Amino acid sequence: MHGGHGAKGPDRNGTGGPPGTGGGAGTSRGGARWPGALLEAAPFVVGLAVTVAIFLGTRDKLGDRIATHFSGGGTADDWAATSSYPWVCLALFGGLALLFGLGTALPGASLAARSAWTATGWGTAGLLGYLLSAVLVVNAGAVADGTEARLSWVQLVAGLGAALLAAAAGALVRRLLPSAWRGPERGPLPGAAERLTLRPGERAGWSAHNTSAVLTGIGAGTFLLGAGLLAAGLVGAGLPLLLAGLLTFALSAVRVTVDRHGLTVAAGYLPWPRTRIALDQVATARAQHVRALEWGGWGYRVSPRGTGVILHSGEALVVRREDGRDFAVTTRDARTAAALLNTLAADGDGSPRPGGG
User: Fold this and answer.
1) In sequence order, what DSSP letters do the residues of 295-357 get, joined into one string?
2) pLDDT higher than threshold 70 for residue 107
3) Is the pTM of this model over 0.70?
């Protein structure tokens, strides 16, 4: 048998159980995630709409260029083409909406953590929306080329005030959502099984494709920001961001495989990088919940806990090597993967055996 969908899941005593009983993380699925994602994206859509409305309302007072950067004293020290301003705003608001919208689908987060995530997103949208609109207003009141535009510290303080109000509103709305709309909550993970029973002469394999919402959002957001800067003619700043976004997106998914070769973790969309732990290097494997921040963040991590590929907080396959080091990879159905890996490692080379056990 082969694949995460076909392998038997371990039962409580670790000797094998009915199909499909692998260690799910107890997360809510399907359409219940969308209201939470829309909640995260909403302030950026509103911010973009307000900024574009102000741009259209002041367009006849703006020249061919506007001041877009200001010194500590508030005087303009950099300018950009007026026609590029809406595209830059679209890239900023769109990229951040995607980042925060995807982030709400992360499993393993408490209501307090999700409220903090929402407050951060709404606060960011409030600050960005106010300052981008203020830039248009001060340019509309200056001479046509924007040379006399000033953005005073009062505007910055007002922007921070708008951010705090938006953050508070976002956190409140998040807490008022029905529980089914708040996004997947962490549930208890069944105890990791020691072994998985195989029938006489049977080979087994397990595989799962896993995607990181955080890395996908960061990659897409960075790509959109780079594209917006390129559209504005800022090639030096836009091209590196665009390429970085593509690379981050390409590394946002991994395929985890357990078979007679051991454990293999490969990039989901690229042939490299790839990590393999052979069967003779496996001391034991277990399923457990991990927190991304405790492992140092997302991606390939090196921490005092060990090394790992951490795509999100939640269910993970943790392998203790013969030398005592741990390797972790976040994946669905980690319980079945751990049980199968223990069985194959105990058998030595994963070859067919005369009996199960």
Assistant:
1) GTSSEEEEETTEEEEE-SSEEEEEEEETTS-EEEEE-TTHHHHHHHHHHHHHHSS----SS--
2) no
3) no
